[in-house]
């Protein structure tokens, strides 16, 4: 390797590390995952997180970033040692962060890297994140939520105000069991599962092959991978891809009929009460008929942080917690705000067994 090639390789690897920080700061998960080889790995044992492959890295990044109130990462150059088409190196990290449930702090860390030359250029084959110093003292600063009109507003969802910690903290195992018992008393089938992986497996048991299935516009489904499980692969008659392929101006009636009465609707909720009620919120109301009774069967996947004592608190959770987060997402993705224009409250199941609630012991979604 000549000196010019070695210099060019070092410059490209340094740019790769800078691109990683920029993608993380801008919450650009597709770009961040593209910086890895197809089988590349991102390992963070202090969290702990281990993600292998671009799909896992993208989905894992979405789960982590959905918890942030704000996050600032500064990368300082470290070593680079090139050996033909592979290289190793280190980068030094300073981070400030606060999550939506109130956790916060300052840390210094090291990325231990392996790089691979590919047809796309240098990519990460592996990044291993090692925390060297952590200070969880309350941070004096805040994210500038009130600032509007900057060029990054649409790309960075930090404009969402931090919700009350009580609406983001996972419920205890005892509370989840009380909720499940109350739901069963109201005619719902209710199960308590460990995590989204268990929910993905359980849903495959509950959905027969070939059934028509509508998935709700849910961050829980998207972040867990359940949305992709159902809508990609051809195992089911997936309604959402069909709806997206129809021209809304000329096919409004066809869309309305498709979403109103599928065999199954799979969705999440904004809140579930300890008295056994489910609360769903919507801007357009298009997905509510299937949940209310139009679908032959309904399955709701509910993160542990969505448990509240009663309906009054559930409505507060919708307005004070779920809406600000969804509004930030809608602004970033669609360039327009969200709103709670329709509410659906399910207090009981007139047809016992039609609706199944999968309560997770982990927090996911809004």
Describe what you observe in this structure.
With 366 residues, the protein is of the alpha/beta class. It is built from 11 helices and 17 strands. The strands form 3 sheets. Strands 1, 2, 3, 4, 5, 6 and 7 form a 7-stranded mixed beta sheet that branches. Strands 8-17-14-11-9-10 form a 6-stranded parallel beta sheet, with helices on both faces. The chain is globular and about 75 Å long. Residues 145-165 have low confidence and may be disordered.
Give me a quick take on this structure.
This protein has 366 residues and is α/β, with parallel strands linked by helices.
Please describe the topology of this protein.
Elements: H1 3-25, H2 29-34, E1 36-44, E2 49-52, H3 54-65, E3 68-76, E4 80-83, E5 86-99, E6 104-118, E7 121-135, H4 173-185, E8 189-193, H5 196-206, E9 212-215, H6 219-224, H7 226-231, E10 237-238, H8 239-244, H9 252-260, E11 264-267, E12 271-273, E13 278-282, H10 288-294, E14 297-302, E15 307-308, H11 311-334, E16 342-346, E17 355-360
Parallel strand pairs: 1-7, 8-17, 9-10, 9-11, 11-14, 12-15, 14-17
Antiparallel strand pairs: 1-2, 3-5, 4-5, 5-6, 6-7, 12-13, 13-16
Brief descriptors of the model:
single chain, 366 residues, alpha/beta, seven-stranded mixed β-sheet, six-stranded parallel β-sheet, 11 helices, 31% strand, globular
Distance between the termini: 52 Å
Q: What is the residue-mean pLDDT, rounded to a whole number?
A: 88
Helix content percent band? 25-40%
Give the overall silhouette.
globular
SSE-based structural type: alpha/beta
Proportion of residues in extended strands: 25-35%
* Number of helical stretches of at least 4 residues: 11
Based on DSSP secondary structure assignment, what is the total number of beta strands?
A: 17
Outline the low-pLDDT stretches.
145-165
Assembly type of the chains comes to single chain
Gyration radius (Cα, Å) is: 22 Å
